[in-house]
Amino acid sequence: MGGPSVPNEEFVKHCVALYRKPSYSPNQHLANDTAIMDAVAAELAAIDWRIDKVSEAEAESGEVPPADLYLNMCQGIRALDNLLRLEGNGAIMVNRPSSALACHRHRLVRRLAGSGLDFPETVIVSTTLDAESAAALGALRRGPSSAWVKRGDVHAERTEDVVKVAPEGIVFAVRDFAARGIGTVAVQAHVPGSVIKFYGVAEGGFFRYYGSDEGLSGPLPEVDEERLRTLAFAAARRLGLQVFGGDVAVPSPDRPVLIDINDWPSFAPFRAEAAGAIASYLHQLTRMGAPA
Asked: Model's pTM, two decimal places?
């Protein structure tokens, strides 16, 4: 499957694979998220790692055994808060729970603000539409011709967690989120141009992308690939991500603009190749004995 070719170690290393809760993998993503974790676990098992598979629900209950390595796909607050204790004790975790929490949109927007990375104007507002939120929305509504309203915590549990609206529709969209019990949203100015989906693994050993509209079989969008790569990895470093994916808008080929980044994507279009690259990175990381 393209994984690392490594002779058996003198002792068996132990890996705990922490699987994402189904509610955080809407639609086809559930099967794909499970498949990439299974594929990485299989790559490690092939070089004699012992693998334990743990659900996010078990992580929420604190039922996580000790291990040499944790593959962390959890996204919920309860599980990640429990896993922070392991991180604080020096456990090797990919991705670290602190980095997964940094991807929750209300934190992500603040982390990227002032970073120097090309990122569109985005405001985090309360769905109660208090005075501060109303003022922030008023300023944004005077700018772009359209905007995206996205739930402010996890990336998506359902398709309506990310919606595109005209400026006059922003308040109505925010109220829809409030009606569903979502307390904060990110409202982001729309960036014109084609959209690129990208996938990466720390240290630059793996980076792939394709046009969202064109699909895998279509031509790659016109973009300065080095600028795209630099932007993606700089954003990942800012958030502390080692295994990541995201979206970039391209208003002009020499100006990719980051519009989203998340931890442990499914890598579905490149699963076998990505699993091998991730396993190689993990094996080297544990040989060094410290998180990257």
From this structure: 0.89
